[in-house]
Amino acid sequence: MASGRPDTPSGRADFGSATAPDTAPGPPAAPEGPGPFVAFVESERPGGLVAHWDSRRRRKHAEPGRPGRTWWDPRARGWWIGVLFAVGSALFALGALPGYPEAVGTRADAVTFFIGSLFFTTAGFLQYRESVDAANDGPAHGWRRVFTYRPQRIDWWATGIQLIGTLYFNVSTGNAVRADLSAQAAHQHVWRPDALGSACFLVASGLAWFEVCHGWFDWSPRSLAWWITFLNLTGSIAFGGSAVAGYVVPATGQARNVELSNLGTLIGGLCFLAGAILLLPERTEGSPTT
């Protein structure tokens, strides 16, 4: 994974996939990260060798990509994360595509969003497990790792908040399938969880962006990780705009601006789709053959 830094030059070692900051060899020379979080550490080893620890690289490369398996590797969890996010994103974009609701009917359109949300949740859970499993601390196996509490880690917050957001989308899209909702119920059970899910995605995408930038901002267009988090942040902003435009007026049960809401969902879905596809080459980046 590229992480906002050039490839490791001669005289430097990359221990991003194996070592946590508090166990890094040698004294940390330059810890970097937003706020209280550490996303990147340089440590000097004996002989002048400088080793790198990178939060995202540790997580994404905890399961090494197999050479030649960039686009098809169903035995790898990282591959499934990318594929499931891609399918969910494509379904959200499809559901918001102009003319699609008229072609299939409003109920089938709502079902499209609901199925897409299930793909989001499955991918979000796998990504959360990827985060907790990559850590050196806590229980080594089983469900106890799922419920570990690691507030000092930015990736734990990012993946956990995103997973919560997908659950809100499950509730919102699932309720939207029902045809018997009153105006008040549509406001409470469709729009409100949609707005909360969009807010969770925005916070999670922001944290992931900060993790890759090792701070509040970085310009690294040669980095796959930079593009992935940039696209996801852009998609989350679009989803947030969609939720604002799709506000359901309690008195009437009608969305405030359906066209603008669908446009935000379409842009967000396409951004998420592009980011999900880039997860696949990121997973095998650095392998002898990708």
Helices and strands in order, then pairings?
Elements: E1 12-14, E2 40-44, E3 50-54, H1 55-60, H2 77-96, H3 100-104, H4 106-133, H5 154-176, H6 183-213, H7 224-245, H8 258-284
Parallel strand pairs: 1-3
Antiparallel strand pairs: 2-3
State the share of residues found in helices, binned by percent: 55-70%
Main-sheet strand order equals 1-3-2
Amino- and carboxy-terminal Cα gap: 12 Å
**Structural class computed from helices and strand pairing:** mainly alpha
Number of strands: 3
SS summary, helix count:
8
For the residues shown, what is the average pLDDT? 84
Task: Write structural notes for this entry.
The chain is mostly helical. It has one domain. The chain is built from 8 helices and 3 strands. It has a 3-stranded mixed beta sheet with strand order 1-3-2. α2 (77-96) packs antiparallel against α4 (106-133), α5 (154-176) runs antiparallel to α6 (183-213) and α6 (183-213) runs antiparallel to α7 (224-245). The longest helix is centred in the last third of the chain and has 31 residues, at 183-213. The two termini are 12 Å apart.
